[in-house]
Recover the amino acids of this structure.
C-alpha cells in the first residue's frame, strides 16, 4: 500500500502501528492527549465518537503548528461495552478482574471509532465507528486470576487483548478482528483511498498473490 502524503498517527498504541505496517503503511507517530473520562450517563457510542473527534481536533492543531507540507491525520479510540456500560482500561488488578468476570460466558461489543483528515485542508474529516460482537467462553476464577497476573489486561480496553493471551477466552467474533485489536484496517484503507491518497502497489499485490498460490499448491 502506497500513500501519496505522509500519514500522522496520533496514538501511542503500538498495536495500531503494527496493524498499519502489516499492510505496508508507515506512519509518523505524534500522540495527542485528551481527557478520556466518560461524561455522566454517556452512551458508549456517543463516548467513543466524542473522544475520537476530540483527538482529531488536538491532532489537527498540533499538525498545523508543527508540520510543514500536506499530511493525512489518523486518530482512533476503542472501547468495550456490555449492558450499556463502558469498560475502559483497568485501573488495577481488582478492576481488571471485575471486567473479565463480567465478560466471560457472554457476548459484548467492541466499538472502534477512527478519524481521518487532511492538513492543510478545509474539507470535512471522515469519522467512522466499526462495531464488532465478541463472544467469550465461560472461565474459571483461577483462569481469570492467571490472566490478570500475566499483566496483559493493563492498558487494554475491557482488560483483554484478543491478539495475545486474551484470545484463549474468545469463542467467536462477528465483525472486524482488526477493529477489536484497535484499528479496522479494511475500512481505514478504503477511506484513505476515498481521500485520494492511498493506492495499492501492483508489485506488492503480485507478490502476495504468488505467495498465496504457493501455499495452496
Amino acid at each position: 500500500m502506497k500513500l501519496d502524503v505522509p500519514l500522522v498517527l496520533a496514538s501511542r498504541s503500538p498495536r495500531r502501528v503494527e496493524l498499519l505496517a502489516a499492510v505496508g503503511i508507515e506512519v509518523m507517530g505524534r500522540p495527542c492527549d485528551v481527557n478520556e473520562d466518560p461524561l455522566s450517563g454517556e452512551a458508549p457510542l456517543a463516548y467513543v465518537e466524542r473522544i475520537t473527534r476530540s483527538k482529531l481536533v488536538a491532532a489537527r492543531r498540533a499538525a498545523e503548528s508543527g508540520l510543514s507540507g500536506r499530511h493525512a491525520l489518523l486518530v482512533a479510540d476503542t472501547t468495550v461495552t456490555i449492558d450499556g456500560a463502558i469498560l475502559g482500561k483497568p485501573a488495577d488488578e481488582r478492576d481488571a478482574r471485575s471486567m473479565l468476570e463480567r465478560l466471560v460466558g457472554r457476548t459484548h461489543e467492541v466499538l472502534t471509532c477512527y478519524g481521518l483528515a487532511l492538513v492543510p485542508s478545509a474539507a470535512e474529516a471522515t469519522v467512522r465507528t466499526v462495531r464488532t460482537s465478541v463472544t467469550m467462553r465461560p472461565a474459571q476464577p483461577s483462569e481469570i486470576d492467571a490472566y490478570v497476573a500475566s499483566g496483559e489486561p493493563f492498558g487494554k480496553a475491557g482488560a483483554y487483548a484478543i491478539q495475545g493471551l486474551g484470545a484463549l477466552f474468545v469463542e467467536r467474533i462477528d465483525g472486524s478482528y482488526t477493529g477489536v485489536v484497535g484499528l479496522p484496517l479494511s475500512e481505514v484503507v478504503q477511506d484513505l483511498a476515498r481521500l485520494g491518497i492511498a493506492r495499492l502497489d501492483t508489485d506488492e499485490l503480485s507478490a502476495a498473490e504468488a505467495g498465496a498460490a504457493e501455499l495452496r499448491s
